[in-house]
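--- STAGE predict ---
source: upstream dedup step, 1 unique chain passed
mode: sequence only
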Amino acid sequence: MPFHTDVVCDTLALLVRNCAAIGGQITLASSWSVYNELAARRPDLIAMLADPNWPLDTFGRDPPYHNQALLFHTDNKVILSASRRLLTGSPETPRTKGIPALTEKQAEALDAIHFIAQANSLKLSIEKGDMCLINNMAILHSREAFEDSEHTQRHLLRLWLSNQELLWKFPPPLELAWARIFNDEDRASVWDFEPVRVNGRLNNPAASCD
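--- STAGE serialize ---
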């Protein structure tokens, strides 16, 4: 899984209900380290990431996409808000038809984020019962490939949190994204703790972050 942020929370909480038989460890990387290396080696990609012309898929909402920068500098803090799924789609959530394709330079910038983060990453050795609280404003995350077995299947619960007292100041484009999640009264307020299964198979498993 490419390095990314979940783009719609200031704290990402993960509860490990069960681990995979093989692999599946969480890896973290500082978005500030990514920024510093880009500033030293590829400042042109910093300008590209800060350009407010990245088409983010809304997956069925109206409008079908909106343009937004991925990199911000606010209150003397660098904020990298980048989810590859919203820009390229995924096997489980294909990209909406009609959305402008990424340019070669945008694709290069996305790849640079991943490979720099990968080179500066820290692997967490997670175990059943662990809870991870990640500063989503400053930390990129990923995970290893994994294999489940008949006796054990990877199961993590994810929770998007926002602390209004400790929340970093951020620019208006991100305020709109936060409002879509935390101020939407039509969203469900109760979620299943156990995975929902239909005929023994997981129903709509979340294979990627938002």
